[in-house]
Automatic annotation (TrEMBL):
Belongs to the LysR transcriptional regulatory family. SUPFAM superfamilies: Periplasmic binding protein-like II, Winged helix' DNA-binding domain. Transmembrane segments: none annotated. One of its GO terms (biological process) is DNA-templated transcription. It comes from Inquilinus limosus. This is LysR family transcriptional regulator. The lineage of its organism: Bacteria, Pseudomonadati, Pseudomonadota, Alphaproteobacteria, Rhodospirillales. GO terms for molecular function: DNA-binding transcription factor activity; sequence-specific DNA binding.
Amino acid sequence: MDMPGAMIVFAQVVDSRSFSAAAARLGLSKSAVSKQIAKLEDRLGARLLNRTTRTLSPTDAGQDFYERCLRVAREVEEAERAITHLSAEPRGLLRLNAPASFGREYLAPLVPEMLARWPELRIEVLFEDRFVDVVAEGFDLVIRITRLQDSSLVARRIASCRRLLCAAPSYLERRGVPRSPADLLQHDCMLYSYATDQNEWEFVGPDGRLETVRVDGRLRANNAEVTLAALRAGAGLALSPDFIVGPDIAAGRLVPLLTGYENPFGAIYAVWPHNRNLAPKVRAVVDFLVERFAAEPIWERAGF
């Protein structure tokens, strides 16, 4: 058992008065925090926390142990600060993965700036649409555009993102304009192979109700650029991220549809493996991306 680590977890639980809040601060799952506390109590042979459905507080033994944990936590923090100070400059190889269209259009122009800013940093970039295993494939940082699921990874939101339903004017002239999600059953809907919702598209209407419609069509692609080309050619309609279709909507090449509805999609996240000693190269690049994208993503400036 990692006793110093468990003491730091316990101190966070007492400070937060909540397993969930402590887990969020530490970048752990709630169950992992709960197991740490249970193992700690077993090792010490004492109950450290009073738990009810509404409150959590230290026992007398827990309060005494908490004060000792604080001293350990301070010493660990001072040691980490000393090491971080010595290695604060981003250096070494950063393996970065991102979806192909977003990477080529919005990340690639930033890579030269990162190389110029940090002379000791090397970057290996892989742009691809498949869902990669961050840990098993050895990535330091991955960009994900989704509704983020709970996992053992750490994530930071770097930008907003919407999915927009759209089609070319030529398609709408032939097939008509859908007025409600149910109308999509009569249309050629282009599907994205890596989407978690696949054939089932969700829409939140003006009244706040969630509507789910099972769509189908003649094109399914694992690359957003294939779908965009087909959209422009009038081959069907698609539900696509705004950073992909936004410029075409602004130029009139594509028409937004069901504008009174929202698709509950997610956002753009920087994701990396959980590691208490977060490498300066990862921290620096994540901060850089937040700085570039968070305020007003370039794809939202057209006002569509």
